[in-house]
TrEMBL record:
This is Octaprenyl diphosphate synthase. The lineage of its organism: Bacteria, Pseudomonadati, Pseudomonadota, Gammaproteobacteria, Chromatiales. Its EC number is 2.5.1.90. Keywords: Magnesium, Metal-binding, Transferase. It holds the Pfam family polyprenyl_synt. GO terms for biological process: isoprenoid biosynthetic process. Its cofactor is Mg(2+). It comes from the Bacteria. SUPFAM superfamilies: Terpenoid synthases (SSF48576). Belongs to the FPP/GGPP synthase family. It comes from Thioflavicoccus mobilis 8321. It catalyses: 5 isopentenyl diphosphate + (2E,6E)-farnesyl diphosphate = all-trans-octaprenyl diphosphate + 5 diphosphate.
Length: 322
């Protein structure tokens, strides 16, 4: 299913989210406006707000708060991108210079803080304590995941279990919170809320696994950033962790040096080892398993255009090339 078809059941809602994002980005501080608009309008896939909207509609919600929460989720995500790019020293995202490359680290961190605080203002406007609870827990868990990833940097002994814990916290948590909120808004039974939580969690894990596979297999143009950025930043993601597990002694020695030193000196050699050990296939196959778990979770909701789109979104997460 193409992404345009996945969006079809909530196309009007997505337009409303975009309008709300632009309106709530406004600030009397010029630099906030500049950086906020730069990063939000830079061509992201908007999969997280899309998941919120589809989950709400699939659960039968007929109000308007899903628009607010989809924008909140996007603001939180955008804030984490601003902070991530500073921590990682990234210079390219979505085929454009990162905000920190244009305006500097200090401005990017502070505007990221602005977006976080604006998101919490919008949560208060919704005035549902359960929403505040879910999102407060999610943002705290994401921050912890960021710290865990930092501890894994340049560590060639990072295990698959440690890696999976990081991506569950750092990436899957926001998907999970978003789809859970769709059920919360609809006042769904506990079983439905748990199913939507499982859907978002599994979708987010599948999405990140594919992202990490693409870092060694896509082109710079497709991916919108430099290939091998994870290795350059010293991040041992699953393709390289798997290659460390199944490679021979010489391959493991090279991978160990590459992870410990970071940079781009060893990227071509590492990519060859990853290909030789079928580590991309291993990573993508694991992602497919999580996508199937996400699709299975939706079954509790029956059949509807929004449910079909949620299933299509899970397939898209693993079939995409960007």
């Amino acid at each position: 299913m193409e992404i345009s078809e996945i969006r079809r059941p909530v196309v009007d809602d997505m337009q409303a989210v975009d309008r709300l994002i632009l309106r709530r980005l406004e600030s009397d501080v010029v630099l906030v406006n500049q950086i906020g608009h730069y990063i939000v309008s830079s061509g992201g896939k908007r999969l997280r707000p899309l998941a919120v909207l589809l989950a709400a509609r699939a659960c039968g919600y007929r109000g308007e708060h899903h628009i607010d929460l989809a924008a909140v989720i996007e603001f939180i995500h955008t804030s984490t991108l601003l902070h991530d790019d500073v921590v990682d020293g990234s210079k390219l995202r979505r085929s454009r210079e990162t905000a920190n490359a244009v305006w500097g680290n200090e401005a990017s961190v502070l505007v990221g803080d602005f977006l976080y605080s604006r998101a919490f203002e919008m949560m208060v406007d919704v005035n549902i304590m359960r929403v505040m609870e879910v999102l407060a827990h999610a943002t705290n868990r994401i921050a912890a995941g960021e710290v865990m990833q930092l501890l894994n940097c340049n560590d060639p002994d990072t295990s698959e279990a440690r890696y999976m814990e990081v991506i569950q916290r750092k990436t899957a948590t926001l998907f999970e919170a978003g789809t859970r909120l769709g059920a919360v808004l609809a006042d769904s039974p506990a079983a439905v809320e748990e199913a939507m939580t499982e859907y978002g969690r599994s979708l987010g894990i599948a999405f990140q696994l594919v992202d990490d596979a693409l870092d060694y297999s896509a082109s710079d143009e497709e991916l919108g950033k430099n290939i091998g950025d994870d290795l350059a930043e010293g991040k041992p993601t699953l393709p390289i962790i798997r290659a460390m597990m199944v490679g021979d002694g010489e391959q493991r020695d090279l991978l160990r040096v590459a992870i410990e030193s970071g940079g781009r000196e060893h990227i071509e050699a590492v990519a060859r080892i990853i290909a030789a050990t079928d580590s991309i296939d291993y990573t993508v196959e694991l992602a497919r398993g999580y996508a199937e778990s996400a699709k299975a979770a939706v079954a509790i909701l029956g059949t509807s255009p929004a449910c079909d789109a949620l299933i299509g979104l899970a397939d898209f997460a693993v079939s995409r090339t960007y």
